[in-house]
Structures are given as C-alpha cells and as structure tokens.
Design goal:
Structural class: alpha+beta
Number of helices: 9
Order of helices and strands: HHEEEEEEHEEHHHEEHHEEH
Number of domains: 2
Helix content: 40-55%
Largest sheet: 4 strands, antiparallel
Strand order of the largest sheet: 1-8-3-6
Length: about 220
C-alpha cells in the first residue's frame, strides 16, 4: 500500500508521468467518500467539481431517459478514474454514477488537477488516451445495439466477465437481471428470456448471481468473437 495519497495516485496511469511533489500536493487536496451499495455519487446534470478515483468497490455510470429508463454505460473498479470529460470542458456531469458495492473514492478538486495537468504534457496525453478509449468503447456498444440481437449482446457481456481455469470458467456479473437489463438497454423480462435461450443450448448454467460457462467456444462463435 502506498504510504500517502500522492503515492497512490502515482500508481494510476493518468498520473504516472506527473512528478512526485506535484502528486503529493494533489493528494493533500483530496477528500475521501465512502458509498453504500445503491448510493449515488452524483447525478447527470450536477455541477462538475471533482475528478474521482475509485479506491475500492465498483461504480456504475448510467444515463436516464425522461421516462425513467436507465442505460448503464460502463462499470468502474479499483484505480479507475471518472470525470475527465467534465474536467476538460467544464460542463455539468454527463451521466449519473452510483455504487454497486460498498465503495471508497478519492475526490480530487478539478482546479487542482487542471493545475497539475497544465504542467505535464505527458499527463494531458494520458487524459486524451483515456477519452479515446471511452469513445472506442461507446462506439462498439452503439454498434452492438444496432447489429446484434439481445442474446448475442448478452453472450458478449458474459464472456467479458468470464475468468477461471478451463473446465471451471465462471462469469460473476455482479448484478441482478434488472442490472443486466440496464447494461444491455432492454427490460428484465427480455434478459430473462435471453438467459433461458443460452441455458437451453447448454452453453451456460446459472448459479445464483454467477454464470458457469460450459461451452465457451460456442458462446464466442454465437457472439461473433
């Protein structure tokens, strides 16, 4: 464990090129927030005042329609960073962020982060790299929504979370079917039917909140991977 917040920040890609003294100054400006599962960190449209670093737990980033439907854009874990876009353009939050698990985050004042970045072209390039990764991920998600049916999108999501040795490959999705629906842009009932199709084909077995992958090759072929 790093001895200081500055040392912790040094282990994050975004700040890897920043000198240690600047990171120590930035670390002293940080505040810590603890979130319970389901607790909201900020809401779409809120003023943007902090860059957030996930110290532990998982956060979901989502957007909502006027009718109250949610679409989960991404799930963030330890050492992930959020708020880069608002830090660059100064506009309000573009999405709502809430905790999936008991979580701890570092809140870094945006003015202090900007001051550090303006002194480090390498750090600015790291921000640009992270934003480019987000654009690529969202482009892929948009293409999947258009070109893949729900069962194939679900298969891709399961495979993205699959780990473990051969013969014991398991996907811990970490959310219930309502959460899956929010990630896939559909309804809980549709997710239930799509899971049932994959089970009938004997490609997966449902095990509580986890999915045991029984035929990963067939699942990958089905998802077009």
């Amino acid at each position: 464990m790093p001895e200081t917040v500055g040392g912790e920040l040094a282990s994050i890609d975004l700040f890897a090129a920043v000198d240690r003294d600047s990171l120590e100054d930035l670390g002293r400006s940080a505040t810590v927030r603890r979130l319970a599962p389901g607790q909201i960190l900020f809401v779409q449209g809120d003023p943007s005042e902090h860059l957030v670093v996930v110290r532990s737990g998982r956060l979901q980033v989502l957007v909502s329609s006027d009718r109250g439907d949610d679409l989960v854009l991404t799930v963030l874990g330890t050492a992930d960073v959020l708020g880069e876009l608002s830090m660059i353009d100064g506009l309000p939050r573009s999405a709502t962020v809430s905790a999936l698990d008991p979580s701890v985050v570092l809140m870094l004042p945006e003015s202090a982060v900007r001051s550090v970045l303006l002194r480090s072209p390498e750090a600015l390039l790291a921000v640009a790299h992270q934003l480019a990764e987000q654009v690529r991920r969202l482009t892929g998600s948009a293409a999947d929504l258009v070109f893949l049916d729900l069962s194939r999108r679900l298969a891709k999501l399961i495979l993205a979370h699959t780990e473990g040795p051969d013969g014991h490959r398991v996907a811990d999705l970490g959310v219930n079917q309502t959460g899956l629906a929010a990630q896939l842009g559909t309804t809980r009932q549709s997710v239930n039917r799509a899971l049932a199709r994959l089970v009938r084909r004997q490609w997966i077995v449902l095990d509580g909140g986890r999915v045991a992958v029984r035929d990963e090759g067939a699942l990958r072929a089905f998802a077009g991977l």
